[in-house]
Amino acid sequence: MEKRKIGKGSTSANAGLLQYINDRSLTAAIHRFGEDKAVRHYSLFQKAVQIVREEIIPKIGTGLDYCTRNSLYFASTKADEDFLIKEYQTLKQYKFPVEFYTREMIQKAFSFSKPAALVSKSEAEINPLKYTHALFKFAAEAGVKVYEETEIIGKTRSSEDYHVVTSNGHTIRAKYLVYSIGYEASHQISVTNAFLTTSYCIVTNPLNIKNWKDRMLIWETARPYLYVRTTQDNRIIAGGLDEDTDLKDCLS
Questions:
Q1: Side-chain-facing half-sphere of 129: CA atoms under 13 Å
Q2: What kind and span of H or E run contains 101?
Q3: 112 has a pLDDT exceeding 70
Q4: 0.70 exceeded by the pTM?
Q5: Which helix (H) or strand (E) holds 36?
Q6: What 3-state class would DSSP assign to 24?
C-alpha cells in the first residue's frame, strides 16, 4: 500500500548510492557498540550490497542503471587525515576491501586535490526509481497485490489478522503489517531522538566527464557532507547540505 504513486516519494529524489561504509565509521561503531556488533553491522551492509548485485538484479532484469563502483571518501580538511588513517587500519583489520589514497594519488586520479582518502571496493550505483518499479513489477507478477494511491487511515487487529482501512473507502486484510515509510515514520511511531532535516539532490545535463577515475562514488568527512556520482548517460548527481526545514514544507 502506497499513498502516492509508486516511487514518487523520497525514492525519486534518492541519489542511488549503494555503500557498506556509512555515516558512522567502523571505528566509532566499535567504541559505541563493541567489536562484535560493530563488525557485524558493517558485514551486513556489505552483504546487502552483494545480495542486490548477485541475487536481486539478475532476477528482476536489466535497464536499472546499475553498476558496481568503488567509492572515494576524502578528508575535507587536513585535520581529518588522521581519522581516515585510523579508519583505514580498522577496516583492513577486519578484512574489508579498502585502499588508502594520499594527496598525490588523488591529484593523479581526479581534477581536485584533498589531503587523503579512503577507497572502498565493490559498492554500487543504481537508479532508485527504476529499481523500485522493477521490484514491484516482479512482486506483482508473483502474485503480490499492489495498492497505489492508497493511504492507510486506520487499522484494527483481530486474533488472526489486521483490517486496514484506506483513504478510498476500502478495507484490506493482512496477516502482517510491515512499515517501510522512511522519514514519515514519525506519524506512526514515537522516536524521541529523530529530527527531520532537508537534504538536496541535483542532476546536471549530460557532460564530457574527464579525470574521474573509474567513475567512483565520491563523498567526504565533513558533516553535513557532499556526495557526488556520475550516471550512465554522463550526468553528475550531487547532494547534501542538510538544513532545518519546516515539517509542513517537507510533507506538502
A1: 9
A2: strand 98-102
A3: yes
A4: yes
A5: helix 35-51
A6: coil
